[in-house]
Specification:
- With 327 residues, the protein is an alpha+beta fold.
- It has one domain.
- The protein is 38% helix and 16% strand.
- The strands form four sheets. A four-stranded antiparallel beta sheet has the order 6-9-8-7, sandwiched between helices. A three-stranded mixed beta sheet has the order 5-11-10, with helices on one face.
- A hairpin with a 2-residue loop joins strand 8 and strand 9.
- The protein starts with 7 loop residues before the first helix and ends in a 29-residue tail after the last helix.
Length: 327
C-alpha cells in the first residue's frame, strides 16, 4: 500500500490538538525556535511581529503541537546542528544540506503555522471563511511534505528543491542575525563566524542565478553588510522568478520520492522578470538602514549603483577587509 501522509493545506487544519506534521491528536508541543538558540542569545522573552504588524508573540511562546515521535526527531536534529554551530563555519559547511533544510524549515514553517492560525481566527471572528489560493495551498503543501522527510520515507532526487549557501561571516559568537519570509519560504541566518541563506522551494534556480557572485566570494570572510546585500539579491531574484517550481511526487510501496523538475523556459517569457535597480535599491536600503545608508545613497544620478559585493567598474569582488564599517 502506497504511503499516504497528512497535508494540513487540503482542509486548512491548524488546530492545536493536531500534530503539525502528522495530523495525529496530541497534547505535546515544541518551540518554533530551538531552545538552545533562544537561551544562548537571550531572545526567549523578546517579541516578534506577525506580518501585518497588528499581532506579536514572545519567542518562547511560539510553539508547534506535535507528537512525541516528531519532537524526538527534531531534538535529535537540533543536537546535530548545535554541535556543528559550535565549530563555526567549518562545522556548518560540513553538514548535509538536507539537515540545514529541515532545521531552517522548522522555524519558517512554525512562523507560517502561526500566521495561518492568526489569519484563520481573524476572519472567523468577522463571520468570514478562511481560505488560501490554490497556488499557496500547493506551495505550502509541497513544503510540508518535504519537512516530513525528518520522520517518513520521503526522499529527493539529485536536483534538490532548495538553494542553500553557507559561507564564512565576520560575526562573533554573541551576535545573532536572521530574517525570514514565511510566505516565500526564504531564510537568512548569521552567527558565530558563519552565515547561510536558504531559498526553501526554488528548485535550486536562484542559487544557480547567483552562482557568479558565490564563486567570487570563495576564500573571503564576508562583512555583515555584504551578507545583507547577498540576501537582498536572493530575495529580489525570488520576487522576479517568473516560473513556479514544479515537482513530481513518485509514490511507491516504500515511500515518496520528490523530483524537482527542471524549468522549461519559453521565448516569450524569460526565467526572471526585469531587474529594476530603483526597486532593488529600495529593498537594499531596508537591509542597510542600520548603517545609515538610504535609498538615495545607493542609486544616484550619474554615479554607479552602490555595492559592497562587486566593484562597479571592474566587477571584482570587494575585499571585506577594505570595508570600513562596523560589524
Amino acid at each position: 500500500m502506497a504511503l499516504t501522509l497528512f497535508n494540513p493545506f487540503e482542509e486548512l487544519i491548524f488546530g492545536e490538538q493536531f500534530c503539525f506534521l502528522t495530523g495525529d491528536l496530541t497534547t505535546e508541543s515544541m518551540t518554533v525556535f530551538p531552545e538552545w538558540l533562544m537561551d544562548h542569545f537571550k531572545i526567549g522573552q523578546d517579541r516578534i511581529e506577525m506580518m501585518d504588524k497588528s499581532k506579536s508573540y514572545v519567542y518562547a511562546d511560539l510553539k508547534l503541537p506535535c507528537t512525541q515521535r516528531v519532537k524526538d526527531a527534531f531534538v535529535n536534529l537540533d543536537q546535530k546542528i548545535f554541535e556543528a554551530y559550535k565549530k563555526g563555519y567549518e562545522g556548518m559547511a560540513a553538514l548535509d544540506e538536507h539537515l540545514i533544510f529541515l532545521w531552517t524549515s522548522r522555524i519558517v514553517y512554525g512562523l507560517l503555522y502561526h500566521e495561518m492560525q492568526y489569519e484563520s481566527n481573524r476572519v472567523l471572528s468577522v463571520g468570514q471563511t478562511f481560505d488560501l489560493s490554490p497556488m499557496l495551498r500547493e506551495r505550502f503543501g509541497n513544503f510540508h511534505l518535504m519537512i516530513q522527510s525528518i520522520i517518513e520515507p520521503v526522499s529527493f532526487s539529485d536536483r534538490k528543491p532548495w538553494s542553500i549557501t553557507v559561507f564564512p561571516l565576520k560575526y562573533s559568537a554573541d551576535i545573532l542575525s536572521y530574517r525570514d519570509d514565511a510566505i516565500n519560504l526564504l531564510f537568512q541566518f548569521g552567527v558565530n563566524g558563519f552565515g547561510f541563506i536558504a531559498c526553501l522551494q526554488d528548485n535550486g534556480i536562484i542559487g544557480e542565478c547567483q552562482q557568479e557572485i558565490l564563486e567570487k566570494m570563495k576564500g573571503h570572510i564576508l562583512h555583515p553588510i555584504q551578507f545583507e546585500e547577498l540576501y537582498a539579491r536572493f530575495h529580489y531574484s525570488d520576487y522576479l522568478l517568473q516560473y513556479k517550481p514544479e515537482y513530481k511526487n513518485l509514490r511507491t510501496d516504500n515511500g515518496i520520492k520528490i523530483e524537482a523538475l527542471p524549468v522549461v523556459v519559453v521565448a516569450s517569457r524569460p526565467l526572471f522578470g526585469f531587474w529594476d535597480q530603483d526597486m532593488f535599491a529600495q529593498l537594499l536600503s531596508n537591509y542597510w538602514s542600520v548603517y545609515g545608508i538610504q535609498r538615495e545613497d545607493i542609486i544616484t544620478f550619474r554615479k554607479p549603483f552602490l555595492s559592497f559585493l562587486e566593484n562597479p567598474y571592474s566587477g571584482d569582488f570587494v575585499n571585506p577587509e577594505n570595508i570600513k564599517l562596523p560589524y
